[in-house]
Design goal:
With 247 residues, this protein is of the alpha/beta class. The chain has two domains: 146 residues, 3-Layer(aba) Sandwich (Rossmann fold); 74 residues, no CATH class. The chain contains nine helices and nine strands. Helix 7 crosses helix 9. It is globular and about 50 Å long.
Length: 247
Amino acid sequence: MNKLLSVKDLRKVYHTLDDEIVAIDDISFSVLEGEFISIVGPSGCGKSTILSILSNLVPSSGGEILLKDSSIAYMLQEDCLLPFRTILDNCLIGLEVTGKLTDENKKYVIDLLNTYGLGEFIDKYPSNLSGGMRQRVALIRTLATKPDILLLDEAMSALDYQSRLTISDDIYKIIKQEGKTAIMVTHDIAEAISMSDRIIVLTKRPSTVKKIYKIEFEDKSTPIENRKRKEFSGYYDKIWRDLDVHI
């Protein structure tokens, strides 16, 4: 597989009037085409900061990011659907902003909505959708600009447990079927194990990479089914012990 992204010695320092806070220090990892990567670590260790730097929302304080002919899209924790726009119009926002709203791209979005069970809601409004369906819409909105890499920041944390399990399956299937590469930040170790090809474990702040796990199941399947695999508890125990504090 091709290496799409390489992060080397990434560092972020926040300055105040009296002091400076080192959020992340010497973070290095790479991402291969088609991989699903999760980042876990103690609360406040800078997981979301890494995604913000990768998406150019905040500048880094050092290090380098090498992106090989790839585009990035960011799916936030909240779905942020506009209540006064239809589901289709919400999904077209990114194309409108980037000046890429063509008939071909609009058809691509409509096809995505139809393929992933949202076709009958194209002309409805967000208030007509469940929380899980709203997250699917948010993902399709993110896919609309045809990015190579998706950044998912606690994308399922606002859902109840049952909905979270279901939507994790949905999001995983959509990402894999569309051939996308993903980097997900999550507090949920089980979620990370069930969805990921590799998991990056960070230390507490100033965070560095403590360990990177390659997740291998004898019979890898959907996230819900992966939770039942015999290897699952072993990964969970190891990652839990690697964390400096509860996450």
